[in-house]
Specification:
Layout: H1 2-22, E1 28-33, E2 45-50, E3 53-59, E4 65-71, E5 77-81
Antiparallel strand pairs: 1-4, 2-3, 2-5
């Protein structure tokens, strides 16, 4: 009986530790939401810049949400582009 409890405790501890080991602390994420007075916030190109250099682009969802993942630590600028806005 004691072995069963010990195994259960070890398995529980292993399951609790797994999410913390899976986190990558060497990269970051930028999340945001575009809001517009007229038109739709979907389809806005979000250009990610490091200094003057463009390093990536993501496009907003229908509701204006966007996520930029796997960014190395540093300073970034964002430019938003959509014809008509």
């Amino acid at each position: 009986m004691r072995n069963g409890i010990a195994i259960f405790a070890l398995l529980t501890l292993a399951l609790l530790c797994e999410p913390t080991m899976a986190q990558d602390k060497t990269t970051g994420t930028i999340k945001g939401k575009i809001r517009v007075e007229t038109g739709t916030p979907g389809g806005v190109a979000v250009v990610i810049r490091e200094g003057e250099r463009e390093i990536g682009t993501v496009v907003t969802a229908k509701n204006g949400d966007f996520v930029v993942s796997k960014l190395k630590p540093g300073l970034y600028g964002l430019t938003f582009r959509k014809p008509g806005l």
